[in-house]
Amino acid sequence: MVRRLLLVALGLAVAAAAALAIFRYPGPAPRSPGVSACASVLIVGLRGNGDAPSAGHGMGDDSWAVAQRVESGLEGRLAVSAIGYPYDPGPPWRFGGHVRTARLGSQLAAAVLLADPPRVGGSAYDDLGGRHDGLLVHVLLGSRGGLGPVQDVVPAALTGRVRSYCLAADPVCAATPANLAGRLRTDVHTTYRFDPGGIADGAAAFALRQLA
C-alpha cells in the first residue's frame, strides 16, 4: 500500500564492537501522528554514529534530522510514515551491506547516505566530490581483497535516486591525512544532526525533489 519509499541511511560507526552493540536491538518506530497505515511515503532511517537504539525515534539523531525536514516539506501534500529500521549489521566485514541489501526497485524514491565510511568519492551520487574516499571504502568495496579498484555497490540504474553527503572535514567519509589528524581534536562525524553548512537541509531538499 505504500506508494513511495524514502531511505535515509546514516553511515555506520567505524568501531566494530560499538557498531555491533548499536545495531543489535531495534529502537522504537512510532508512526507520525494521524498517519494511516497506507501512507503515500515511508521514510526508513538506519542508525549509526554510536546512537542509542532509541535515538531519533529509532533511526538515529542524524537521520532523524533529515527525516523531520522531509516530513515538514510534505505536510499537507502527502501522508508520511517514518520508522527506524530494526537491523543488525552483522560481522564487521559486512558493514557495506546496508547499501547492498536495499533492493527496493521502483518503490525507492530516494536514498540519502550521511557520513558513509564506504563513501566512493567523486561518484555520480556523491555530493561532496573530490578524490578522497571514505575510511573503509577499500576494505569493504575494494577488489582483490582491498588491493584492487573499488567496486561500487550502488547500481547504475539507481544513482539518480541516491545522494551521499559528507562534511569536508569528516575523517570517516573523507579520509584525508589532515582529517584523520584533526579527529584527535574534534569529531565532525557526529555533527550532521546540527545541520552544519546546511547539509541536512540539502539532503532533505534532494529527497523532496525526488518525491515531487
Q: What does this entry look like structurally?
A:
The structure is a single chain. This protein has 212 residues and is of the alpha/beta class. The protein has one domain: Rossmann fold, CATH 3.40.50. It contains 7 helices and 5 strands. The chain has helices spanning 16-22, 61-74, 97-100, 137-141, 143-146, 177-182, 199-211; strands at residues 4-10, 41-46, 80-84, 108-114, 162-165. Strands 3-2-1-4-5 form a 5-stranded parallel beta sheet, with helices on one face. Helix 1 links the parallel strand 1 and strand 2. Helix 2 (61-74) crosses helix 7 (199-211). The radius of gyration is 16 Å and the shape is globular. The two termini are 19 Å apart.
Quick tags:
alpha/beta; 7 helices; 212 residues; globular; Rossmann fold
CATH architecture: 3-Layer(aba) Sandwich
Backbone CA Rg:
16 Å
Proportion of helical residues: 25-40%
- What do the pLDDT scores average to? 75
SSE pattern: EHEHEHEHHEHH
Poorly predicted segments: 11-37, 89-93, 96-102
CATH-derived topology? Rossmann fold
Distance between the termini: 19 Å
